[in-house]
From TrEMBL:
InterPro entries, alphabetized: Ribosomal_bS16, Ribosomal_bS16_CS, Ribosomal_bS16_dom_sf
Gene: rpsP
Gene3D superfamilies, per database record: 3.30.1320.10
Alphabetically ordered keywords of this record: Ribonucleoprotein, Ribosomal protein
A cellular component annotation (GO) from this entry: cytoplasm
Family listed: Belongs to the bacterial ribosomal protein bS16 family.
Name of the molecule in the record: Small ribosomal subunit protein bS16
Organism per entry: Cyanomargarita calcarea GSE-NOS-MK-12-04C
GO molecular function: structural constituent of ribosome
GO biological process, one term: translation
Length: 86
């Protein structure tokens, strides 16, 4: 199964995360299928590839809880479900 999850990078205590599409059995910092965005929790900076995320969600990718919250906050999850219903 394909998951949308966070991949950690950065220094100790200064973590940033990339939002990636990856096989659910692969380790957290393993090689992703596709990088779909960026999240910095210290500054609340979020950059998302909306087109790539909606494509992956339509293909059946499951976001983790944290990524789901980021997508809901950016109104991407609703867009993806609306286009899938059409």
């Amino acid at each position: 199964m394909i998951k949308l999850r966070l991949k950690r990078f950065g220094k100790k205590r200064e973590a940033s995360y990339r939002i990636i599409a990856i096989n659910s059995l692969t380790r957290r910092d393993g090689r992703p299928l596709e990088e779909l965005g960026f999240y910095n929790p210290r500054t609340d900076e979020v950059k998302l590839n909306v087109e790539g995320i909606t494509k992956r969600l339509q293909q059946g990718a499951q976001p983790t809880d944290t990524v789901r919250r980021l997508l809901v906050k950016a109104n991407i999850l609703e867009q993806a479900s609306a286009t899938a219903a059409s």
